[in-house]
Amino acid sequence: MNISEEQDSRTERLEVPNSLWLQTWRLLSQMGQGESESACVWGGTLRHGRLCVVKAYPIGAAHGAIRGCQSHRMSTQGVAELLAELRKDGLRIVADVHTHPSSWVGLSEVDKAHPIEFRRGLICIVLPDYATTPPSLESIGLHIYLGEGRWLESSQAETAVRVVLV
To answer: How many domains does the structure of the chain reveal?
Structure first.
């Protein structure tokens, strides 16, 4: 990765209403029931260099998620239906949020190979322990898609600057 790619990937701040942060945690905790990964997509808008999260869209059987495995891959049809919902609401994908079974919040090879969309700058947030306890910003993983299968993993300090609860 060159310096300009790294700088480009850090230009937008993610603003998340505290109530939606808690709603997302509860949703993912309930979906995974402490036994499997769960996922949602945050829909929002881009305003003045800030990604403003507006709504959580659960990823499940209704959107073609492949259940019964420890990942949240979606079918092409499922992604198309999700994108149609977002368009209808006047929103775009601002982040993929999903859980992992342990405190490890990196990206698995499946996560890296199958982002919800192949858009440079896509944010992926990983919550630990199947979201069985309320996550803090210090406990999450934040990853930014750089394109061509490459990801940038943010440090805790970068995450604290990049994700702001409002």
So the answer is: 1
